[in-house]
Specification:
The chain has 151 residues and is α+β, with helices and mostly antiparallel strands. It is built from 6 helices and 7 strands.
């Protein structure tokens, strides 16, 4: 929904020329009409607190140790490949950080038969407990700027 004057109007996809009907009907091709039509994603950075305990997966052995230390019950489908995340959090770990090297080292492992990072597509952090501070990133600030109009 978009605020048009004093009423809410259902937002529609832009027409072929890039303007939505609301902007065309109002005759406005200025920044306000374009801002009403644009949506941006919020990009937020999570900065670990100094006391955060983060498990690093940088090699195949790191993942093997993690799964062995926090095993799932034997009747669980993923018990060979995935640690018990709840048990890990209960033991005091706050996050797991998988590096690019960790992904590469574990790339050829089979998900059901052995410890695997299947589904982890890029270096990332899995937060088990909220021991981080959210901050705006520079990308968010630049995303909120409206591009200059030409023509």
């Amino acid at each position: 929904m978009v605020l048009a004057g004093d009423r809410l109007v259902r937002r529609r996809r832009p027409d072929r020329d890039g303007m939505d009907r609301l902007a065309r009907q109002s005759g406005r091709r200025d920044r306000t009409a374009l801002q009403a039509r644009r949506t941006y994603s919020r990009i937020t950075a999570a900065k670990p607190l100094p006391e955060a305990q983060i498990y690093l997966i940088d090699t195949e052995a790191d993942l093997d140790r993690l799964v062995a230390a926090f095993p799932l019950p034997p009747d669980h489908l993923m018990y060979r490949s995935t640690p018990d995340w709840e048990a890990m959090a209960s033991a005091g770990w706050d996050a797991v950080y998988v590096t690019d090297a960790g992904l590469t080292a574990n790339a050829d492992r089979h998900v059901i038969a052995e410890p695997s990072l299947h589904g982890w597509d890029c270096p990332s952090v899995l937060w088990l407990r909220p021991t981080y501070q959210l901050t705006s990133s520079d990308a968010e600030a630049s995303a909120e700027q409206v591009p200059p109009l030409h023509g």
